[in-house]
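BUG-398 | component: ligand-complex export | severity: low

The export step for guanosine-5'-diphosphate jobs runs without errors, but we want the raw record kept on the ticket for reference. Input record follows.
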Amino acid sequence: MNIHEFQAKQLFAQFGVPVPNGKEIKTPLAAEKWAEKLNAPVYVVKAQIHAGGRGKAGGVKITKNRAEVPGLARELLGKTLVTHQTGPKGRKVRRLLIEEGAGIAKELYLSLLVDRDSGWPLFIASTEGGMEIEEIAAHQPEKVLREPIDPAVGFQGYNGRNLAFGLGLPGLEPTIMGPFITMLGNLYRLFMEKHASMVEINPLVITTDKRLVALDGKVSFDDNALFKHADVQAMRDLHEEEPLEIEATTNNLNYVKLDGNIGCMVNGAGLAMATMDVIKLAGSEPANFLDVGGGATKETVAAGFRILLKDRNVKGIFINIFGGIVRCERIAHGVIDAAKEVDIKLPVVVRLQGTNAEEGRKLLLESGLKVDVATDLWEAAQKIVALTGKKRKKAAAA
Ligand code: GDP
Ligand code: MN
């Protein structure tokens, strides 16, 4: 799960990571009142969307004139911001962060994430703040510092000194050394206690008056640990998520929307991947990844059906179930029940294999539903593609 910058900064403040004085704002009037209260030499008005690259896309406005703040707020609120991270559709701005501007002497990059190779938390830092880390890594790999943290002992002073010296802080601003190392420890605490999967501060700045401040903030959380953190769950912003994906999580389904036109319902992530491959091989494109899980029930299948049918791109449905833990006749019941609830006008191909497959196929054939029943994966894929038409080129361009 991701959160907004203003929420990340609230967490930073809670854990002693220095942030500018700022507030979440939803209306121009609230912007005016807050600016008056803030009474700062410089104001920064920042669009809050779950995507970076806002600066270059006009989503970050800076002014010294307090009277301009409500106008800037009006300009950004309701606007659809297109950044290189939003995709061409962009994201609608519903909230702002308005904060006191900082005079920047130096921009640094800092992040903390779980390193996939070692499984350890890993700090990544660079003197080239403000730029994207992928870009720095591609063009100036020597400027990317890595400091792994042994989770058995936690963050230690030497980890902090490694990073501070690596960044050349003693030459840049020696008084910042202490606060920097303290901040790293606090960030590590936040990361572990809140079960974050990634924390990124870009830029982390040294101000002209020699303070260390997180000017931007991004935090992602491990969804599997969210149940432990009611405060983090409360930060979820459903506007930033795909509606069908929200419905899927509510029903404990793993669903990712894609651009093709064959809706897939599969049990098990591996089989779901194979199903997507075989659809492509047969000349079409999947509309989604949907794993109803190894222990799929009648209810999950019905929920999956409803989600697939809500996607307007879906022109046909391919159900591919291997009965291991799940029994095929239960899936068949799920399909039949769901078909009673919603009017299915689309072609449906069901491939059942494994435990009680024969019984499942029989139930479907005798149900009176207009479904094609198959046992072989390749045959089934070709069937659904034939029924929906080869849309590969068109779907890929859409
Ligand atoms: P992003 O583009 O979505 O990553 O948004 P950021 O929060 O990183 O802001 C983009 C850029 O705006 C930063 O890299 C800074 O250069 C600039 N910026 C943001 N806040 C301030 C501020 O308080 N003072 C100054 N001078 N620049 C700022
Ligand atoms: Mn940034």
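Assignee comment: Attached the raw record above. The pocket of guanosine-5'-diphosphate (ligand 1) is lined by residues 44, 52-55, 60, 62, 101-102, 104, 130, 202-203, 215-216 (CB under 6 Å).
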